[in-house]
Amino acid sequence: MAATAAKPSPGLLDAIRRDLGGTGEQAAARLINEAAAAKIEPALRGQLGAAYAGAWVNGPTSELVVATSDSTKVASLAKSGAEVKLFKHSLATLEAAKATLDGLVSSAPKSVPSWYVDVRTNSVVVLAGDVAEAQAFVNGSGVDASLVRVEASQEKPTPLYDVRGGDAYYMGGRCSVGFSVTRGSQGGFATAGHCGTVGTATQGFNRVAQGTFQGSSFPGNDYAWVAVNANWTPTGVVNGYSAGILPVNGSTQQVVGSSICRSGSTTQYRCGTISQHNTSVTYPEGTITGLTRTTVCAEPGDSGGSYISGTQAQGVTSGGSGNCTSGGTTYHQPINEILSVYGLTLVTGGTNPPPTGCTGYTNTYTGSLTSNANAYQPGTAGYSAAAGVHRVCLDAPNGTDYDAYLQKLSGSTWTTVASGTSSGPDEAFTYNGTAGTYRVRVHAYSGSGSYTLGLTRP
């Protein structure tokens, strides 16, 4: 069985060898054969019709196997190059049995974590923490017992969730996640100290058990960190709500006057500028020192949420005055102090989703480039933008290396303020900028062909 496929990256081949075993040559063959199987399987399914009993790939190079419940089909199937299995039951029969179990989900015992159609064994498998309970469930379902195999299992599935800056969490009241952090092997997030004391339990945005406050200081300071349980995975991103999912790439403190944005679960994503660092603020509970003062607005429930400038984490929301209707002043506890005090590491490396045609952007532009050529979108004169976040996406042909550069006009000079310059064809990044005139330079570092550029301007 042979098929053409895009050349896999060395990193992908290394990961397959690491996790699935085999040689590099086998890993490459696996990918080729799997691509071929995905194309061949629908045709074989159509050829077999009601006698189709499933298909799968086997071995370190993923050789295709196809099953049928009709012995007269075996010879013709063999011509496809796939291994052929003759089974008693069709896939449709097994899926009908599973559908019957699905209809009885309300009466399924808690000790049954899962059931599914297993095409390799031509059966419906019911996993069981308690085999007797599972068998009683099957026997009472009306499903033909010959179709079902009860299998003892210790699985205890639980849903998994991401920790993202700006999302809500609950602890009797509501606050917002600042930034994902780790301490050793333990993951968690930084937030405001006034949101909880050591030992306070938290629930996530979905009201699912999430973690526990491990450290908290307020007043004097206004910082804390929460360790999360295994159902939650810290990620290097901030939920920018209308601005999209924003990557966190570091925590370099920005200078006074710089633009800065805040994400929180009440007023979502808001921007302003840094007014002063090292500010002392007196709340009814006491004085807090070392805060940064900003012109970003906030309201109750935003506490603890992320302050970010470009891709650099700045701090967590402490308090302020005013609101997002009349405007106001806010203060944040710098993130670097929180990391230092508790021995935490900021989780970074969050990226925007990879481009898939750059859909979902306000403006879309297309063009074509030859190697080492440039194009400017929406034109050499650029576009006018208010202060806020620019979202840029570039989708170029596979096998090329295209880059994107966001440029701002300063006097008569265009200055690059943000860029996506990976070694692949696609790029995606955001930039939180001041008002001005901008443009995007698209550069074909290597390779030629058509591209799509997605752009959402503030």
Automatic annotation (TrEMBL):
Residue intervals passing through the bilayer: none
Gene3D superfamilies, per database record: 2.60.120.380, 3.30.300.50, Trypsin-like serine proteases
UniProt keywords, alphabetically: Disulfide bond, Hydrolase, Protease, Serine protease, Signal, Zymogen
Top-level taxon: Bacteria
A Pfam family reported for this protein in Swiss-Prot or TrEMBL: Pro_Al_protease
UniProt KW Hydrolase keyword: yes
UniProt domain Peptidase S1A alpha-lytic prodomain: residue ranges: 89-145
Family note: Belongs to the peptidase S1 family.
Protein name per UniProt: Peptidase S1A alpha-lytic prodomain domain-containing protein
Organism expressing this protein natively: Streptosporangium longisporum
Lineage of producing organism: Bacteria, Bacillati, Actinomycetota, Actinomycetes, Streptosporangiales
